[in-house]
């Protein structure tokens, strides 16, 4: 049986002062990755005592098998994410929950049933790429207006012009409404909504579809025998929540969004509806080179060269992926923490001698 050592706080688990051997993963982006990006990182192993291992791995061997003396070791890795990865996703509504989660896992294998392997995992935030340039979309509808389903009151038509078909969560959709109500009944209100449809699928042909209104806003209606065209067209914006799960098209999880505009007829009067699909993206990350502050007492005695990991269906790694001149590797090769005051004093004394 293997025992999992959780590394939630590397400040307390890493370093010679800890009585527990531990492992920690550091990746190069603080904000996440796009599908198709290159991921660079290091695995940091702290052995509080001599450890016999059959290998340190992250899908592929990173370090040697055999005996590791008490001390600290650092192993670099690099791999590319496939272009077609669905983005990280989390959805919860009632008794229904769905997640797309990506993790990098590292393990120092130790032989024997009662010798616990040392493990850790680091979650990766993955973004779907904006595949196309956003463009405006139009949708129109026309219908006879009825009272109590059978008494004809006239004719109405409407057209919506949505400023784009792609949005980032937290943006505002700008919607322009043109309408022509040639009926004796007025539309009491105009309601604009963001509708979400989630389809979940699992083994044994199990399938479930969830549909809900994420947000909506109500505007004044369109009176009878009123035309709103040209300069009289109305702007009916809709603010999108910043915490929206993104549009996702995976094999097991599909999440789609629609902008719906409804001219509400009121009691016993028919409505006029228009709907157009839109794509929702999470807030897009900014390019950054990142390396967290190493834990105190982190002074690796051995730094291994980075290893390239081949991922099926991923693009080939760029020629400079393992180049020691890249900013991340330059930082990684000198990745050390601050010594304690007593150790610093000892080093100063050694220097004076």
Care to describe what's here?
By secondary structure, the protein is mostly beta strands. It has helices spanning 10-13, 327-332, 341-352; strands at 22-27, 33-34, 38-47, 51-53, 55-58, 60-63, 66-68, 71-80, 89-93, 96-100, 102-109, 118-124, 126-127, 137-147, 151-162, 166-168, 172-173, 175-183, 187-201, 207-222, 226-228, 234-235, 238-239, 248-249, 253-264, 272-281, 302-309. The strands form eight sheets. Strands 16, 19, 20, 24, 25 and 26 form a six-stranded mixed beta sheet that branches. Strands 14, 15, 18, 21 and 22 form a five-stranded antiparallel beta sheet that branches. Strand 9 and strand 10 form a beta hairpin. The longest helix is centred in the C-terminal third of the chain and has 12 residues, at 341-352. The protein starts with 9 loop residues before the first helix and ends with a helix. Mean pLDDT is 81; it is low at 1-19 and 339-353.
Give the percentage of residues in beta strands.
over 45%
How many DSSP E strands?
Answer: 27
Overall SS class? mainly beta
Question: Please, how many helices?
Answer: 3
Anisotropy-based shape? elongated
- Uncertain regions spanning at least 5 consecutive residues: 1-19, 339-353
User: What is the rounded Rg?
Assistant: 29 Å
Distance separating the two termini: 51 Å
The largest sheet, given as strand count, sense and whether it forms a barrel, is: 6 strands, mixed
Q: What portion of residues is helical?
A: under 10%
One letter per element, helices H and strands E, the order comes to HEEEEEEEEEEEEEEEEEEEEEEEEEEEHH
* Average of per-residue pLDDT values: 81
